[in-house]
Specification:
6% helix; 8-stranded antiparallel barrel; 204 residues
């Protein structure tokens, strides 16, 4: 089901394409449900293992346009101080000036600028990711998990996906050299998204 721009490789035509009724039914504004969503990361530690973490406090909005899928948008705000890697001392280091400097820059944001279908239920959303005082483009590959009405009558959509970034591109450069060679924390970080969003009731 195409939620975003379908890549068009066919010759141009003046014919009007019918809107998929199932897609059109998804049109609306959706609020990300933080209780059933996860925004996290994976990073290599000491060259030999992975550390995983997540941000417990986040909010966002998806605006899906079934008649003009390319106009669909996504907006996400993440509270940096809510980072959780399972180790309090490590979390404290991450929110310090060595890394995110959460006191000065409390929020990480993503604002989409483009969306497209890659094939089937695979999509790519491109936008601006801001960490600290640096804004750079980011593309997130997503899979549409479907839509459903939950037991409370909420209309939901679900997506999951990931993106690889270099943290140094956003000014997160702290590191420590290892005696055996290499560094404590890799520059490459994988961002992970598992999103459930609830459709807002139509305005009266």
């Amino acid at each position: 089901m195409a939620l975003f721009n379908r890549k068009n490789t066919a010759p141009s035509t003046t014919a009007t394409l019918a809107v998929d009724p199932a897609l059109e039914a998804l049109t609306g504004t959706y609020t990300i449900d933080p209780a059933h969503s996860s925004i996290g990361f994976t990073v290599r530690h000491a060259m030999v293992t992975n550390v995983r973490g997540s941000f417990g406090e986040h909010e966002g909005t998806l605006v899906l346009d079934g008649a003009n899928p390319g106009a669909s948008t996504a907006s996400i705000d993440v509270k940096i101080a809510s980072v959780d890697t399972g180790i309090a001392d490590r979390d404290g280091h991450l929110v310090s000036g060595d890394f995110f400097d959460a006191e000065k820059f409390p929020t990480m944001t993503f604002r989409s600028t483009q969306a497209e279908q890659l094939g089937g239920d695979a999509y790519r959303v491109t936008g601006d990711l801001t960490i600290k005082d640096v804004t750079r483009p980011l593309s997130i590959d997503l899979e549409f998990n479907g839509s459903a009405t939950d037991v409370y009558g909420n209309e939901r959509v679900g997506f999951e996906g990931s993106a690889d970034i270099l943290r140094s591109d956003w000014g997160l450069t702290w590191n420590a050299a290892l005696e055996t060679g290499g560094v404590m924390v890799s520059d490459k970080v994988k961002l992970n998204f598992d999103i459930s969003a609830i459709k807002a009731a139509p305005q009266a």
